[in-house]
Specification:
210 residues, mainly alpha, globular
């Protein structure tokens, strides 16, 4: 797949501040796990789902598209579509959030926003090609190139995201749920909540709208 040339200097010194940003973006689930552990337990499936739904709404409120919002939340896009179809409350909240962004003039591709930078960095650090990451974030290549030339922090963030990419990354990032398992090889545990507590009988399931 075509990979556009790196923007800015071929070699950019690694910025500790930029590296810290990328580390924070990649370790959010660890932070969330620690917050739950501080209360003496592990998150329930309901906790996890509601947290991810909240992330999707946060991303949508800042003008990113559905695919980018799913990436922001760390869930496959088809899972978000399932939530919309099966949970009327979430679907209504998502539509209201999109309307809120639109009412304030925040529309994907109309302006450059920190939310778009966040999506770009997450995608790149996950192993997405720069071409696909730029497309997903909503940037125009020409506009992004001009921004990188003008802002050293953006250059540093892109360099930190590039260095954080998984070794031997090829092509576009594919969520773990879609990756075929090689015979005899145990699949890696993807980032995010893995240890969860089953919801007690009778507890409302956010995915089912109960």
């Amino acid at each position: 797949m075509y990979e556009p040339k790196e923007y800015g200097p071929a070699r950019v010194p690694l910025s500790p501040e930029a590296a810290g940003v990328i580390d924070w973006l990649r370790t959010r689930s660890t932070v969330e796990q620690a917050l739950h552990s501080s209360l003496g337990g592990v998150p329930s499936e309901r906790d996890v789902t509601l947290a991810r739904m909240g992330d999707v709404l946060q991303a949508t409120a800042q003008g990113v598209g559905p695919q980018a919002a799913a990436l922001w939340a760390g869930v496959p896009e088809h899972v978000v579509q399932t939530w919309i179809a099966q949970n009327p409350a979430f679907g209504a909240a998502l539509r209201a959030t999109a309307s809120l962004a639109s009412a304030h003039g925040i529309r994907q591709g109309r302006q450059s926003t920190p939310a778009m930078v966040r999506v770009l960095l997450i995608a790149m650090s996950n192993g997405t090609t720069k071409y696909e990451a730029i497309k997903l974030s909503g940037f125009q290549h020409r506009r992004l190139r001009a921004l990188v030339k003008s802002h050293s922090m953006l250059r540093a963030l892109l360099e930190a995201a590039r260095r954080a990419r998984p070794a031997k990354a090829r092509g576009s990032y594919v969520p773990g749920d879609y990756r075929p398992r090689r015979p005899g090889v145990k699949p890696p545990v993807p980032a995010g909540f893995r240890l969860v507590r089953r919801c007690a009988p009778g507890t409302a399931d956010p995915e089912g709208g109960g």
